[in-house]
Amino acid sequence: MIDMTPALEISGLTFAYPDGRQALFGVDLRVAAGERVALLGPNGAGKTTLVLHLNGILHGGGGQVTISGLPVTPSDRKAITEIRRRVGVVFQDPDDQLFMPSVAEDVAFGPANLGVRGTELESRVTEALTAVGMLEHRDQIPHHLSFGQRRRVAVATVLAMRPEILVLDEPSSNLDPASRRELAEILQALPVTVLMVTHDLPYALELCPRSVILDAGRIVADAPTGDLLADGALMATHRLELPFGFDPSFRR
């Protein structure tokens, strides 16, 4: 029997900050295992708030988030530890994730914190660095690497946890064209579910067959990425703009 449990399911998610500002208004979202989905929307739409609910960093509103059938329950320490293994978040600035003396030690930090040791830990480090094409840099000081290399190492730190869902926050930001292409090739090859938060609409089209637009705390569109980007009225309404001269139908 095929397991139809979604990798991610959000039902009726609401959230307000302590100052009373309502950030999410009944968000519903279902992402199947293996899907690559872009989360689009203008600044202040609630994208970061939504993402921080996926591993329990934010909580306390209404609704429910489940990861492969496991509810995100921050009060259950054992469950939330497993959730944070299943959901790997790669931040926009790789320097937020790299703090150890060497690349290998940074990549080993997460699984070691879960008690992984010895040959299994070494295997995870090698596996993760190989996946992002950074194995030859394993003994280097992270902050001596280029920005694009540091971003790849940041991805490896998450892959070493063997997550089921990879959440990427603006993965193409500040990358030169070659680094941008190299990262895209790496992400396309990963056998995980991907949720990519981005303002880089061509990157969303390249990497994610499906996109969701979040605006003012509500999901306002959910469709194939090419269809959304080709809808000029929808794009304008939600303050999304393609680069000058870019034709979204070119890759549809």
TrEMBL record:
It comes from the Bacteria. Keywords: ATP-binding, Cell membrane, Membrane, Nucleotide-binding, Translocase, Transport. It is found in: Cell membrane. SMART domains: AAA. One of its GO terms (molecular function) is ATPase-coupled transmembrane transporter activity. Pfam families: ABC_tran. Residues 8-241 form the ABC transporter domain. This is ABC transporter ATP-binding protein. It comes from Actinoplanes derwentensis. The lineage of its organism: Bacteria, Bacillati, Actinomycetota, Actinomycetes, Micromonosporales.
